[in-house]
Design brief:
Elements: H1 4-10, H2 12-25, H3 32-45, E1 49-53, H4 56-66, E2 74-78, H5 84-91, E3 95-99, H6 110-115, E4 121-125, H7 136-145, E5 149-153, E6 161-163, E7 169-171, E8 178-182, E9 196-200, H8 203-212, E10 217-219, E11 222-223, H9 234-244, H10 247-265, E12 271-272, E13 287-291, H11 296-305, H12 335-343, E14 344-347, H13 355-370
Parallel strand pairs: 2-3, 2-4, 4-5, 5-8
Antiparallel strand pairs: 1-9, 6-7, 8-9, 10-11, 12-13, 13-14
């Protein structure tokens, strides 16, 4: 699904030098590489504060901790997402409230979000799924009306632009009070281990976040808050600093691959290609088709015989996961989410896909459908 080795070969000299520099200066924790990457990412995103942390799940958890949410407070998010989005809500003793998604974009349905608001609702976590932004202008309008915090889950869409009605743009993750991302190796901006970050333009929130990720310390061994140990190490920051310089180039390569896929499947009634909303561009963390009238499992098996990986993101929606079963929800409550879980399939999507590989993938899929 992702060719990290070929990607590394293209930037090997830069990455090796950056890693070697960290090893030689031995500043492995919170060293110059972390400080520089933080500044570079702030500049790239156009945001005042980037707070690096250990992974994307921690980013979401620390963000909620900084908002001083209390057990029983409700946080709304989508049922069609990776488990981490709801996992941190539950871990903090908060109440996850799930809603359906839009059929075209796979992102949270703003009107379903507004209908789910109760007096206990304190925040919403829109997920920018698969590489494009949710409808943030509408989400912010609803959230301001109801005095809710907005925590953007940008783990799959770093680098994507949200386009406002007046034509202005902001990067995904910089619109709400807080944005969170993951630097897991397969992400569009991925390190060579685990990593994450939180974004904010709020000075006070940034101060709280920096304290929380460092055991609640302001002065060493003096703990003002209950915190966690969540740090981005210097070697990972060094890798990310190099790769950040190529992020827009990577997005272009992914879009080129997506265009090839779109053209190849344009006349296939059994496959619905991804929709990009007018208010966002797409950085294609995943290229996800909606299938109809074909055996999805058989297609995946067939592709396997051709050495082509394919994945289902996500086969079981959150409201039907064993760990999150809740009497408030039952099968059939979120028809679009459930339809997508039963029909989607994601194809290889990365920066190193060439025309020969793309032709092999698309022709194999069409061969299966037409046989």
């Amino acid at each position: 699904m992702v060719d990290l080795k070929s990607q590394y070969q293209k930037i090997k000299t830069e990455v090796d030098h950056a890693i070697q520099e960290v090893i030689e200066n031995t500043a492995f924790i919170n060293g110059p590489a972390v400080q520089q990457f933080q500044k570079d990412l702030e500049t790239y995103l156009g945001v005042k504060h980037v707070i690096p942390c250990a992974n994307g799940t921690d980013a979401l958890q620390v963000a909620m901790m900084a908002l001083n949410l209390k057990p029983g407070d409700e946080v709304i998010t989508t049922s069609f997402t990776f488990i981490a989005t709801a996992e941190v809500i539950a871990l903090l003793g908060l109440t996850p409230v799930l809603v359906d998604v839009e059929e075209g974009t796979f992102n949270i349905d703003p009107e379903a979000f507004e209908r789910a608001i109760t007096p206990k609702t304190k925040a919403v976590v829109p997920v920018h799924l698969f590489g494009q932004c949710a409808n943030m202008e509408r989400i912010m309008e609803i959230s301001e009306k109801h005095n809710l915090f907005v925590i953007e889950d940008t783990c799959q869409a770093i680098g994507a632009d949200y386009i406002f009605k007046d034509g202005s743009r902001k990067k995904a993750g910089t619109i709400g009070q807080l944005g969170c991302t993951s630097f897991f190796p397969s992400k569009n901006l991925g390190c060579y281990g685990d990593g994450g970050a939180i974004f904010t333009n709020d000075d006070e929130l940034a101060k709280q976040l920096r304290i929380i990720v460092n055991h609640g310390m302001v002065v060493r061994y003096y703990h003002d808050l209950v915190g966690v140990n969540s740090r981005l190490d210097s070697i990972q920051a060094a890798v990310l600093k190099v790769k950040l310089q190529h992020l827009d180039e990577y997005a272009t390569a992914r879009n080129n691959a997506a265009t090839y896929y779109n053209n190849a499947f344009a006349n296939c009634p059994n496959l619905k290609t991804p929709v990009t909303a007018a208010y966002t561009n797409h950085v294609f963390h995943q290229y996800t088709l909606v299938t109809s009238g074909i055996d999805r499992a058989a297609l995946i098996d067939y592709l396997g015989t051709k050495d082509i990986p394919a994945m289902i993101y996500y086969p079981v929606p959150l409201h039907l996961q064993k760990a999150y079963l809740d009497p408030r929800y039952k099968a059939g409550d979120f028809p679009i989410t459930e339809m997508l879980s039963n029909t989607v399939v994601s194809l290889p999507m990365h920066t190193e896909l060439d025309e020969e590989q793309l032709k092999h993938i698309t022709s194999s899929i069409l061969e299966f459908i037409n046989k």
